[in-house]
Amino acid sequence: MKRPDWLAILAAAASGLALAGPLAAGGVAPGWARPYLAALVASAVLCAGGANNPARWRLGSLMLALMSAAAAVALVALLGAGLQSNAGWGYAAALAAVWLAAWHTVSWLAALRPPAGWPARLVNLAIPLVFGLTLLFLWECGVRGFGSSMMKVILPAPSAIAARFGSSLPTLGADFVQTFKGVTAGYVMGCGAGILAAILIDRSPFLQRGLLPLGNLVSALPIVGVAPIMVMWFGFDWQSKAAIVVIMTFFPQLVNTVAGLASAGAMERDLMKTYAASYGQTLLNLRLPAALPFIFNGLKINSTLALIGAIVAEFFGTPIVGMGFRINTEVGRMNIDMVWATIVVAALAGSLFYGLLALAERRATFWHASYRQRAG
Amino acid sequence: MSARRGLSGFWTGHLGPILAVCVAIVALWYAGAVWMNADLQRSAFDNAGQKSWTTGELVAGTLAQERPRLPAPHQVAQELWKTVVDTAPSSKRSLVYHAGVTLSATLLGFLFGAGLGVGLAVLIVHVRSLERSLMPWIIASQTIPIIALAPMIVIILNQLDVTGIVPKAAIAAYLSFFPVTVGMVKGLRSPDPLQLDLLRTYSASQAQTFWSLRLPASVPFLFASLKVGVAASLVGTVVAELTQSADGGFGARLLAGSYYGQTIQIWAAIFAAAFCACALIAAVALADRVVARRMGYAR
Fold this sequence. Notes:
- The structure holds two protein chains of two kinds.
- By secondary structure, chain A is an all-alpha fold.
- Chain A has 16 helices and no strands.
- The radius of gyration of chain A is 28 Å and the shape is flat.
- The mean pLDDT of chain A is about 90.
- Chain B starts with a helix and ends with a helix.
- The chains are: A mainly alpha, B mainly alpha.
- Chains A and B meet through helix 4, helix 5, helix 9, helix 10 and helix 13 of A and helix 2, helix 6, helix 7, helix 10 and helix 11 of B.
- Chain A: Its main location: membrane.
């Protein structure tokens, strides 16, 4: 450890500035926040001074991580205790100090070599978590500490979004159910039709050569444009959303499944031939299982596409419920916190959908090389 | 001899089958147009006081309505011809004008998004803590419908007095940035350990490794993700134009068409947008081919 630990030095400087400067401009901030800042200074100095002493540096890093978390909690608590939009430059320096300390913590964690197993998994989870929490913290304290009332409308703090989320659960739930009726129905029909069509055209090389380039092309086109047409044909309710999802998911699924059906090796096919297996037997016992990784790839791509299709289709007309409708109307009424709450629902739903697919894939394709390697 | 080979190559290659499928699609489309517009045409005959009609009259009528449920291909083609060729490009009725609005925002956004994506990928590959902290979020964000943010970004930027091309380009940049980052990180990581070890035996610096090994190795990955990114930018711009429709563009055309039930106009806008997407992807593919030939990785 020959190089000086610049992050710790900067964190020490920033927290020192925070101690010296006013936390509130033109007002007296409660004094109880100061000890936390002092502790942050002390641990940053310990860490920066330990550049040539690994044991001391490790202790300092741990202290810095813990103290920055404590200081972050104190800085958030200050916002509830009279500090609103009138934070001073001392507060800004304190935010910078916490940010630098968090950065230091992330690099410290990333350089750790934890033993394989749960410690490694814990560290792998902690690193993005620290990063995300730091962003949320800066957003929260920046908006509430420095933002004008206009700013708070345009970019609501995470706590305001969470409060809105908690108070509008029935609305958000109804929107979710409405949108997911269309998403689920369209997804099942589109992906199912894609897989079936792939199996059908699998026997005809002519159709494969004709449809695959078109399928690849169509997958890249802005298909969401047909949303207004579908709304005209199938009405405002979820059926039109299901229709657009069917169109959006069909071709990616078709292309991926066809590629998957072609992926069984020549050796294995020859083996099936020596068993005198019929086309159906080969399909069921060899080619479909071999195609599963590709099919799941298509399903995963489509999980995002389905949500996009349904939400954009709702911009064109819907009964007065649905996530796309909510986003569009609440944006117009400048209820940006409600928009964020809806986006949180969409993000949760999207990643849950994807996570379930990934889980199903693991169960179904446990034999595949990509999973065997990880286990070994 | 060569003519016969050319003819059989037509059917065993890609061109013939694609053409056959296209012909089938157009035929299905005409059948669908007749079927979907028949009810409308019957009531039109009723309204006109015409008591009886032949099937020929009915079919001809379904293919020539002003606001059909499904316009026939030739109606869309006529509309495209009218709005692209016959109308002056400066007119707001011209699709060339709207294509210009959409494409300028798309390209500006794409350039920014691709640049940002490449820059972030370079940082992620070189800064270990960034890779472990940021990359999981970038991958997770692929699973959520980020396009839902588009109306909000437009409105917020409008509130901050940022109007015109910038909000649309911001969304286009935002949508193209993710695939480029992911693809570029993969590309910069693609040199195998043997090659990296070789450079280490030369005691090459990190910068030298980057310029002479990592960057050249990443180019095929870069172009693959640029194709995805440019298509995503166009989708982002079109969706942004739904919210910011005053400036025109394909999204505004779609929205206006859906308000006034102008189905032919909607279909023309969809096809024009699809052509633009094809042109953009083809341009990236062409650049890919040229670069591939000069760098010598072309197959």
